[in-house]
Amino acid sequence: MLISLNWIRDFVDLPPDIDPRELGERFTRTTAEVEEVKPVNTGAKGLIVARLEAVKRLPDAHNLQLVVLDVGRGNSVQTVTTAPAIHVGSNVVYAPAGASVAALGEIGSAKVAGKESSGMILPGDALGIEMAAHEAVFAPNDQEPGDELPPELFDDWLIEVDNKSLTHRPDLWGHYGIAREIAAIYGLDLKPYPVVPIEELADESLPKVAISIDDPDACRRYSGLVVEGVPTQPAPLWMQLRLGHVGMRPISGLVDLTNYIMADLGQPMHAFDADRVSQIKVAWAKEGDNFRTLDGMERKLTARELMIQCAGQNIALAGVMGGLESEVSEQTTRLLLESANFDPATIRRTAGRLGLRTDASARFEKSLDPAHTALAIQRFVKLAQPMYPDLQITSRLSDCYPRPHEPITVTVNPRHAARTVGRKVRAEEAAKLLTPLGFQLTETNGHWDVRVPSFRATNDVSIEEDVIEEIARCAGYDNIIPLMPRVTMRRFEPNALHELEQRTLEYFTTAHRFVEVQGYLWYDSTWLAQIGVDAGNCVQLNNPAAEGLHQLRRSLMPGLLAVIEKNRFHFPAFSIIEVGGVFEPGTPEDHEFRHVGLAGAKRGKKAESQLYDRLKGAIEGWAWERFGRPVTFAQAGPAANNPWEHPRRTATIAVDHALVGRVSVITLSLRRAMDEHLSAWAVAWAELRLSGLEELPALTEPLGAIPAHPQVEMDFSFLVPAAERYATVADRLGSFASPLLKHIRYVGSYEGERVSQDRRSITVRAVIGNDARTLVEDDANGFRAEFEQYLTECGYETRK
Fold first, then answer.
1. Closest-CA residue to 631 (of 610, 666, 599, 655)
2. Whole-model pTM?
3. What is the share, in percent, of the chain residues with pLDDT greater than 70?
C-alpha cells in the first residue's frame, strides 16, 4: 500500500526537514514493514490550466486531434494531441512552450501532421499518475484558464508499506490511521479528523432513508444520506494527484471523492442514484439470481452472497462492487451516499467465489471499525462543500446499527508487562505510550484497566498480551532488556512420531532417491471433479483459503497425482514423497493422522511392473531399516471412492501383522482423466499411516559370528504365471531345505519382449555356505541342481 507524505501532513505537523527515509525506517521498527520510500519528482515548471475551445479530429492521422485552448488573458493557442475523451469546455493541465516536466523535458512548439502545435496537454503518466495511455489530466471547472499550477503541487514522497504486515491492523488501511502511528513515533499531536459535525446532518425536519438489515451478523451497520447539487465535473487537481500517486486512477469528481475517503479513513463508500434507489435493504441473495456489476459482467449468485437491495431488486454486491442498474450517470441530480460495515469472512468468501477482489473488499476483509460508517459520510460532506457550492443535504443521516459494539476493556498485570519488556514499567509510562494510539489507561488496585479504541477493537486488541505488545513496540523493541527466563527447565522429551517422520523421509530420499513435495491440507474440489473422486464425508473448513478448498484431505494421493500431472512436462521419470497430515471426521476433535505418500511415474506403459515392484522393495527396506520387521503384502480390492486403486493390482501393507497402508498402480482411465498425455505413462503409488507406528519397538537381530569360511551367492531366474504374487512364490521358496542354504532374497522381476505375456520372470539370490569347510565346485553345482529341481516341482520354469 502506498502512503503519501503530503497526505499525512494534513493530520500531523511534521517538521519541514524530516527525512522520509528515516521515517520509513522508524515505521518499520515500530509498526509495519516499509518496502520502499521513493520521491515523486515530476520536475513540473510553468504548468497552467487551459480550457478547450475547439476539438477537431485530423483526417489521415491516427488518433490525432487539433485543439484550440484558452490559456487566459484573452489568449488562445493551437496544439495537436492524442488525448482521448476530451470535450469543449473542459479544463486540462497544459504545458505551454517553455514549460517542462522531468518525464518529457522542456516543452516546445513543432509542426505535427502538417499543423502548428504549441505546447502540450499533459498526460497523467507525465505527472506520476497511473492512467490510460495519453489520457489527459482534467482540472475542475471552477478554475480559470491561465491559472498557474505551483510546482510543489505535483511533488511528493511515497512510502510503500507491505500489505502482509497490515492484515491484523484494519486501522492502518487509511492515511489517518498511518498518521496516528507516525504522530506517536515522533511524539507529535494528531489533529482531529476533519468532518462536519454530526448535528449538521441530524435535522429532524428532513426525511430519513429507510434502511433495514436482515442479518445483523453479516451486516453490522449501515449509514446513508441523500444530497443534491453534485455536478459532473473533475475532482480538484490536488485530490486527483494524491489518488494517482497512491495507485488510484482518477475517474470523475464523485468517484474520486469516495475513493479519496477510502484511502483517507480506510472506509469504503458508494453512491447510488437516489432517483433509482429510495430505500435500502441488506439481505442474502436468492440461489441462481443473475446480477450485473459495475464492470459490466453478468454474475451468477448463490444464497451465500450478501446483497444491497431496493424494492426487492439487487442493486449492489455488498462490500465488493455496485450494480450497473443503480450506477450514477451524468443525468444524476440526487445521490444516496452509503457507508456500511460487513462481516469480513462473508466478504472474503464472496470475493473469492466470484473472483472479484476490489479495494473495498480488501478493506472489509480486515474487520473495519463500525464507527467509521457515519464518520465517512461526515467526511464526504466536509470535502464536498468547497468542491460543490450548490450542495444540499436533503435527508437526515440515517443509521441502522442493530447490535452496537460494546467497548472493550483489557486488564493488564504490570508484572507481566515487566517480564516482556525486561524492566519495570510504571503506569505513567504505559499511559504515555498508549494514549497517542487512542488507548485509555486507568490504574486500579495494582493492575491496569486499558480501554481499547473502537478502531483497534475488531479482532485486533482483545487480550492482555495485545496491550503489552503495544507497550513494547512503542517503547522500542531495541530497548527490551534481554534476561534469562525465570522458569523451571524440564528435560527434553523427544517426539517419537516426529522422529519417525524424519527418518522415513531421510530413508526414501537418500536410499531410493525420492524427491520431497509438500501439498496443502485441503482438497481442491476442481481437481477432484476432474479425476472423478467423490471426497465423501470430510472435515469442513469454515473459512477456506479460496472457493472449492473447504474439505480437509483424507488421503495424500489426490495431491500427489496433481504433482505428477504438472511434472510430466519436465521429467521422463521421477519419484516423489510427501509426509503430511490427513483428517478423519468423527474421531475426537477430527483427529489428524500422519501419513507418508509415495509415487513413481515413468514414461512408457511397460514400466508399470518395474515401478510397482520398486515401491514394494523400497517399503520392505524401510520396514527392516526402521523396525527390523518384515512387510507382508496381500491382494486387496480397490477401496470405495479411491479411483487411484487398480481393481486387480492393489495390495495391503502390513508390518508385524498390523495394516499400515496400501500400494497399487494407476489405471489407464484415471491417467487419461488427469491428462491425456499420461495415457503413455505408468504410475505406481503407496500410502502408509505413520501414526501409531512410533509405538512399535524396533527388533534387532543378534549379530552372529563372522563365517569362518567363504560363502557363495547364486542367482536364479525363473518364470512364474503373471497373475501369481511374489508373496505366494516366497512362501514356496521358504519351504525349500538344504544344509548349505543360509537365506534367499528377492532381486527383481521382469516383464517384456523376451517373456510371454502370461509369464513373469523373477530373480532371487541364494547364499550358501558350510560352517566347517570351504565349499568346492561340486557343492555349488549340487545345490544348483537341487534348487532348480525344486523350482520345476513347484511348476516354475528356470531360465538359463
1. 655
2. 0.68
3. 99
Which pLDDT score is estimated for 465?
A: 95
Is residue 545 domain-resident? Answer: yes
In eight-state DSSP terms, residue 141 is: T
Q: How many residues are there in the chain?
A: 800
Q: Each residue of 424-444: pLDDT tens digit?
A: 999 999 999 999 999 999 999
Pair (269, 359) in one structural domain: yes
Residues 412 and 393 in one domain: no
Is 348 inside a domain boundary?
A: yes
Of 695, 723, 755, which residue is a domain's last?
695
- Beta-bridge partner residues of 515: 576
pLDDT at 486 over 80: no
Q: Which residues contact 380 (CB under 8 A, 6 or more apart)?
A: 257, 258, 261, 269, 337
What is the pLDDT of the chain when averaged over all its residues?
91
C-alpha to C-alpha distance for 274 and 394, rounded to whole angstroms: 11
| Same domain membership, residue 422 and residue 361 | no
289 exposure class (CB count in 10 Å sphere: 0-12, 13-18, 19+): middle
CA distances from 584 to 537, 637, 638 (A): 9, 22, 19
Q: What is the pLDDT of residues 572-608, one digit of tens each?
A: 999 999 999 999 887 666 688 999 999 999 998 778 8
Q: Strand 279-284 to strand 210-213: parallel, antiparallel, or no bridges (unpaired)?
A: parallel
| 3-state SS, residue 713 | strand
Q: Do 590 and 500 share a structural domain?
A: yes
Mean pLDDT of the region 474-489: 80
Q: What is the pLDDT of residues 252-286, one digit of tens each?
A: 889 999 999 999 999 999 999 999 999 999 999 99
Long-range contacts of 755-758 (CB under 8 A, 24+ apart): 755/719, 757/722, 758/721, 758/722
Residue type, 689: R
Query: What residues form DSSP beta bridges with 603?
Result: 681
The enclosing domain of 514 has a CATH number of 3.30.930.10
pLDDT at 701: 64
**If we measure between CA atoms, which residue out of 606, 558, 607, 550 comes closest to residue 578?**
558
Does 743 map to a domain? yes
What is the total count of domains within the chain?
6
Chain center to CA of 34:
20
Radius of gyration of the chain (CA): 38
- Ramachandran angles phi, psi of 501, nearest 5°: -60, -45
Neighbour-count burial of 597, counting CB atoms closer than 10 A to its CB (0-12 exposed, 13-18 middle, 19+ buried): buried
pLDDT at 588: 67
What is the C-alpha to C-alpha distance for residues 47 and 70, in angstroms, rounded to an integer? 14
**With the CA atoms of 498, 502, 507 and 509 taken in that order, what torsion angle do they form, in degrees rounded to the nearest 10?**
140
Report which residue type is found at 257: L
Q: State which H helix or E strand residue 506 sits in.
A: helix 496-511
CB 222 within 8 A of CB 338: yes
Distance CA 235, CA 237 (A): 6
Which structural domain, as residue segments, surrounds residue 548? 496-695
Examine residue 706 and state whether it is found in any structural domain, yes or no. Answer: no
Question: Between 61 and 268, where is the model more confident?
Answer: 268
Whole-angstrom distance between the N-terminal and C-terminal Cα of the chain? 75
